[in-house]
Amino acid sequence: MRASSRLVRNCTLGLLLTSLIPAGLLVADRFNPPDLHRAEQAALLVQARDHTLLDGHTSRDGFWRLPVESQEVDLTYITLLMMTEDHRFESHPGVDPQALARAIWQLAQRGHIVSGGSTLAMQTSRLLTPHRHTWGGKLRDILRALQLEWRFGRRGVLNLYLTLAPEGTNIEGIRAASLLYFGHEPSHLTPTEAAVLVTLPRRPAALRPDRHPDALLSAALRTLQRATSLRPVAWPTPDTRGVPHDAPELAGHFLSAGRNGVVVTTLDARLQRNARQVLASHPAPLRGTFAALIVDHERQIVAWVGGAEHKAPGNAIDAVLAPRSPGSTLKPFVYGMAFEKGWMTPHTRVLDSRLAIGGYAPKDFDHAFRGEATVSEALQLSLNVPAIQALERVGPSRFMERLSACGVRLRLPENPDGTQSTPSLAIVLGGAGISLYELTMLYAALDHDGHVAPLHREPTGLKSADPAPEIALLSSRANADIRTILRGTAPPAGVASWEGVAFKTGTSYGNRDGWAMASTPQATVGVWAGRPDGTASPGLTGRDTAGPVLAVLLSLLSSSPHTSAPPASAQPHRAIAVLSPALRTLQQRQAPQIIFPRNHSEIESRSSEGTMLPVGLEGSGGHPPYHWYINGIPLDVPPGAQPSWTPDAPGFAHITLADAQNAHATIDIRIR
């Protein structure tokens, strides 16, 4: 009876201990969880579409570390790792008593450590919280190994080790090491590569591939010979050139978005590197830089250069995304909308002469006027007054709304009180901000039947499964007309011809921005030149500064496998003979206009000696010859002379301009 009660008591105690031990482990794990901070910090690697490494950035703690799971690693490596480091990994609870006993016995016999006895779980514990090799540290590793195995299981412990294993310099983990040393994912490793990655963590400093490649390969060979019967096919030295910096802007964008790991982009590695070399080798504007964007026929970005390789003020800003004044580069789309509405055609004749609309009197870039020209000639020569007349008919607000519906937002300048200004006719001459990215979206539409769609910097998968939304900017007819006109634009100096290139340049006010845009059946290319801080660069123009760079970039496309598409067939223009009389010549303003002075303006007309100086007069429109009247008194203007008037004294003046049909315009000014 006494023996029976003792048995019951022992069984009860055993059951109690059996339940308390897991409870104790649970409490210990709850209040002293493993520190996974290092394992959760990943680096960023940016790859081209063919998985060529282009750029990257270390993790926040400065390591090239990428998470990986055991099923993503070649079985050769896993087998070699287990045979070398922990061949009873599948049977022990995180600590191998036999290995520990052997290590202690060898230490007692020989007086120094022969084998460590550490399991992968114990090594993982030390990798999570690095410390010196002491008896206290070993004890903590044992306890933490039990915890890791209990918390994450064997697969979880193995995944942590594969992520944190030191592989020389600041490279950690099997995936980062395989990508940086061998140029491919660890899912396919040769026996040689597997042996290198297994051996390196044993002595990462003494076997660094960049300093001791021979010692590393010899040690890896011994590992392979001891553990398996696999024979190395070749012993290539691991690539230790490090991470290139061929796409710094994209790497920066991914980092700012919180991305890490491996990001595969749509960039073409050859085009990206060659484009950066082209931009770096061309003379930049005064303390300025270039930016370029190349988009293939599928609207995938194959080259993105934001100017970060130039040491220019303000280069922390990616010039591909920074809004700048587009100069004349929006003119084709204004004309296209006018074609679409039937207000003009490519053959319509327009008058390029002095014109004032609502007090706005634009001039051409060279401050000269060409007289009468066709709309095609006006666009190819980038004449300003005809473009203003086209936008007047389209409407600045309506033009902005059409662009906004396509995902392109023009940034209007702010008023002095901080409010946004209203759309004006100056938009077509660069009076609003737009980025190179958005402008390239618009020009890509020229060879996509006038449809705008987002540009992609990461693969979107199968087209049938993930079609890009397209929005019509221009009708098919209007788009074909604009494309044909731009294909007749003269190429940059030194370029004999370029078949099928729709070409347009632009220069912003004050020579701050130079643009060159080209759309072809194969690709769309955009180039911006200027200073990132917005300062003027004397001598900078779109044609002479950005144009030659664009021509070189276009020459890179001929041999690229990612920029081929069937040529688009442009429809012919409507013949002039079939146009209605209303469309053969753009209707001019019937009434004359006073271009200068502006109505209600104040003019300083006294010299330093106190004498009155002449005031120039300029008119336009109506039916010349003109007659000028100052306060009702005719002004004597000799034939062929520029009209001017010398005030008698300061004060107000009423000025009238009358044409040959007695139509007139009047203004009031103040002379000071």
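Second entry:
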Amino acid sequence: MTRSDSDTETAPAGASGGTQSLERALALLRAVASYGEDGARLADLMGDTGLSKATAHRLLTALARERFIDQDPRSRRYHLGPELDSLGRIAAARHRTADGDTAAPGPATVQPTAFLRPDYQGDAIPLADLLCDRHARADGARAALLHESVAGQTTELSFARLARDSARFAAVLRRLGVGRGDRVAVLLPKGAELLIAALAIWRLGGVYMPLFTTYSAAAVAYRLADSEARAIVTTGFLRRKIPRDNSRPVVMVEGDEAFGPGADAVPFWSALHESAPLGDVARYADRDAFALIYTSEAEPKPLGVSLPVMALAGIEQYMRIGLDLRDDDIYWNMADPGWAYGAYYGLVGPLLLGRTTIFCDGPYDVRQGYRMLTKFGVTNLTCAPSQIRAWHSADPEGGPNKLALRILSVVGEPLPPELIGWANRVVSVPLLDQYGQRETGIFMMNRYDPGHADRNAGASLGRPMPGFRVVILDPQGREAPVGGAGEIAIDVDSSPLFWFDAYANDPGRTAARFRHGRRYYLTGDWAFLDSDGNIHFRGRASDAIVMQQAD
């Protein structure tokens, strides 16, 4: 496993000179401001921003050169510089109150992580605007989706088209009685209809509930009943999995068996094009659920995990820091959007950042995967361990020689060192293990460090993502010292990116997650912490629920 505890040092010209470097510099300024008159140490700033020593020092030097930052020569602490004072006076003159007085500044509490962004706080968050409409206004022609069929045909859905079609489909769902807080089951293969349905649900203030297409009929029936889904969006073929006594409205994508067993269903595209687009966008509160994802079909009682709007902060943090997603990357998350990792970071994450989602039909096939990587020039790939194993089994000598890959991440379970070494050798880029659960999103990661690409952390799970404090608890609920084994836990009080509150359908299992009190969320996984801050996996308890259990 390649270890990295630092930020990137040699971003391509399109990234280092653009948005990414600007965001990092602003993060440093906010971090320095948060320490007030005491000033900030370099180590403080590295911890707050997740930047490496080299990157933080390089940006601080540039900011000092422009007089945005000062460094005390004796204490070596960083303070805001005189240029910010000048600019602040100009801004203050521009933003005076009606009676002529300058509004008093609030306390310096801004931190450099995404969780304090106002976009994800409050009780009036226009989710559909965050995930689609603002991108359509900025660059409507940009692809929101590239969809590859099994036959190799590519279709594109722009953000402008996604905005228009989802507004029309929202009107269809509203006529079927869908409103704020209603769960809508989406049993669809990967394609344009899935994105359109999700955005339409969010325009209405509803809750998107993906159903994995390989679920059995019994698994589908359980989730429909347990969630009290208000409506279902599916295809003719997949409708076979819906109970015969279903009384909910069904919208069915035209195509396979459009006039067979599903002739009584509302036709997806016909109804969409016959509808006037819905003009308004519903507002969510930060703790309102906008998605509901159930645990594996193998669970004796599948648990419903509600994803609140505030989780967008952690999703953005992971996309930018954990995956090192750059402005010029071609990003492909191979996980199915019916699973947590695919839903969080393959559907919501790209929409949030205005990036292109790539969907490919059918189950994973190594030759198809190679075609996708070469056809689209994928530079940033994330997938399940099973896909890496399939890659190794089908093609042990490696695939195409001219892959554009820059970084490869896996999540779901620790990979053995020999498989990591094989992947590093075949694709010539580091393979980085990430760790998380449906209830948390990714919160521990091995980070890409091009300056130390060969450094190894002894097959560790990595370090906590900025915004989380991760500890090891002994059986009595006490934090274990370095080297001590115990259960991986999140210190909720010190983890502003933590969002899980309770299962939607099992108070008992919720209580088990917090059996030492609400201070600690327990993962059910066992590990130990080494002296460098890396966490090493040692085993999984029977009730542990991982991010992805199938693909």
